[in-house]
């Protein structure tokens, strides 16, 4: 994976799959590529955050490739590995409760529950999903948008590591 200098100079075709693994929104990927070169990682992360204000359709499309909390990502690519790492703190002994919480959330909102799970315990995830069930659907999509932006920032750091 490239460092910042490599990121700034790599051909777009080389970076596109890595950026898509960070956030599967073509407009966001294109904006980050077009903004190169970045002076430092903070400038790249600020650009990521600026362009991560997603439409509702972009949010729904972006979460489509994410696994449910407590489940393994499909495939063996970089996105699946990152997802497994991000969920590593979620205790699998809570699988039944997580499955029930995921199902209730999906019934309510029509899409999977998504949270930036890095560093979160299973109990914390359960508390979060429970509290978010009270959100109106339009508010919840904005919450998911913020979670996607957080995941994108974490993954961008991994791209540059």
What can you tell me about this protein's structure?
The protein is mainly alpha-helical and 161 residues long. The chain has one domain: Oxo-4-hydroxy-4-carboxy-5-ureidoimidazoline decarboxylase (UraD-like, Orthogonal Bundle). It contains 9 helices and no strands. It starts with a helix and ends with a helix. The model has no long low-confidence stretch (mean pLDDT 88). Residues 8-157 form the Oxo-4-hydroxy-4-carboxy-5-ureidoimidazoline decarboxylase domain. Keywords: Decarboxylase, Lyase, Purine metabolism. It comes from Saccharothrix saharensis. Pathway: Purine metabolism; urate degradation; (S)-allantoin from urate: step 3/3. Its EC number is 4.1.1.97.
């Amino acid at each position: 994976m490239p460092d910042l200098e490599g990121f700034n100079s790599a051909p777009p075709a080389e970076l596109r799959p890595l950026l898509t693994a960070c956030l599967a929104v073509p407009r966001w990927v294109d904006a980050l590529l077009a903004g190169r070169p970045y002076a430092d990682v903070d400038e790249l992360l600020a650009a990521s955050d600026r362009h991560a204000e997603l439409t509702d359709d972009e949010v729904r499309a972006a979460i489509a490739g994410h696994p449910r909390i407590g489940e393994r990502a499909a495939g063996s690519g970089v996105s699946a590995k990152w997802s497994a790492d991000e969920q590593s703190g979620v205790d699998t002994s809570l699988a039944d409760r997580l499955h029930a919480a995921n199902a209730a959330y999906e019934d309510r909102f029509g899409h999977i529950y998504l949270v930036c799970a890095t560093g979160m315990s299973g109990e914390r995830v359960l508390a979060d999903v429970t509290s978010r069930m009270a959100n109106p659907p339009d508010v919840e999509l904005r919450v998911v948008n913020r979670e996607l932006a957080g995941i994108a920032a974490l993954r961008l750091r991994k791209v540059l590591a």
